Amino acid sequence: MSKTIIIINGPNLNNLGKRDTSLYGTKTLADIENDISLKASDIGVEVEFFQSNHEGSIVEFIQQWSEQAKGVIINAGALTQVGYSILDAILDTKLPLIEVHLSNIHAREEFRQKSVFAGSAIGQIAGFGPAGYLYALEHLSSVIDR
Question: 24, 84, 133, 135: which one is catalytic?
């Protein structure tokens, strides 16, 4: 049976590499996805990537993959504080969830410190840049193996 982990990126993450590089680094989303794919191959999991600037599209992707996926990694971007429909879609899947943020949201503006996903996630990784995705992938893979 395949171990597929869906990796979701929300609004503006398609602009990585061009956005404030002091916060988000210089890697593009394609660079990050390539790094994740290499790590996934090394640890024996499959990944399916999705990025959208539209909340409904993210919900539809989660619903589409709810039967095949074994876990979810999400960087909801600006939807972190308000993405209740995304949270509901993830909760409906009953899949383990890890939340990732490139910057340390807890050291930024107060509004960024609230996450609708945090209470339902098995963990939150913030402030480690693109490596956070790799940490999430490794941990989620070990959780799926249990």
Answer: 24
24 catalytic per annotation = yes
pTM, 2 dp: 0.95
4-145 adopts what CATH topology? Rossmann fold (3.40.50)
Written as six digits, the tokens of 36 are 């994740």
Residue range 66-116, pLDDT digits in tens? 999 999 999 999 999 999 999 999 999 999 999 999 999 888 888 888 999
The residue-averaged pLDDT of 51-67 equals 98
Contacts 24+ apart (CB under 8 A), 23-27: 23/102, 23/103, 24/102, 24/103, 24/129, 25/102, 25/129, 25/130, 27/129, 27/130
Distance of CA 11 to the CA centre of its chain: 12
Q: How far apart are CA 52 and CA 54, in angstroms?
A: 5
Is there a catalytic annotation at residue 106? no
Active-site option among 101, 106, 135, 139? 101
Residues 4-11: what's their mean pLDDT?
98
